Amino acid sequence: MPKQPAYFDSQAAAAAALNIEIDDIREAKREGCPAFRSGRVYGKELVSWLETRALQNTGSAKLNGSGLEKGRSVIAQTIRGLSVCANLGLLTPEQYFDFCFTIVEAANDPELREVFRQTILNWLQLNFSEVAEAKARTAYPKIMSWFHSETKAQARRKDEEGDLEALLRRLNAQCGQLSSA
């Protein structure tokens, strides 16, 4: 995770360095993201805008009409507000992490949890190089420990989903063989 420059000279350079799909960057520009000025792409503004949009999308998702939509929206607004406070220097990274972690744990919502994990990943990429990852572990052990364990858990969930999909394909194939016999 190399430390990122303040801006990139092209959308392609920003996409490669920030590990963001070029289509997402183009969409952000079309939607009026303020990170695009004078032919440059300002990385921190782009990442912050994309995180805010992800939280808004999570907050507006419809869930079975059970009242969780409003709760998600409130949680998303709270996380956005805390993020702004941290960016202004009113909260330390540890305080921001503790507040958001408490909220995300209490919400027990996988989508909000993933948005928070992505927020931490983006913060790490913007502030620490791969060489400095050890420095981040020393400076922010709680954040780094949670991030690593959450990333491993996400990988396990994806593996389990892949196993389930493979099982469904095999069952469908067997059902197809039975119906043709």
Element layout with pairings:
Elements: E1 7-8, H1 11-18, H2 22-30, E2 36-37, E3 40-42, H3 43-60, H4 68-87, H5 93-107, H6 110-127, H7 133-139, H8 141-180
Antiparallel strand pairs: 1-3, 2-3
- State which percent range the strand residues make up: under 5%
Global structural class = mainly alpha
What's the oligomerization state? single chain
Low-confidence stretches: 59-66
Q: How many runs of DSSP E, i.e. beta strands?
A: 3
How many whole angstroms does the radius of gyration measure? 20 Å
Report how far apart the termini are. Answer: 55 Å
Main β sheet profile: 3 strands, antiparallel
Q: Can you characterise this structure?
A:
The protein has 181 residues and is mainly alpha-helical. It has one domain. Helices cover 75% and strands 4% of the residues. It is built from 8 helices and 3 strands; from the N terminus they run E-H-H-E-E-H-H-H-H-H-H. It has a 3-stranded antiparallel beta sheet with strand order 1-3-2. Strand 2 and strand 3 form a beta hairpin. Helix 3 packs antiparallel against helix 4 and helix 5 packs antiparallel against helix 6.
Which features characterize this protein?
181 residues; mainly alpha; 4% strand; 3-stranded antiparallel sheet
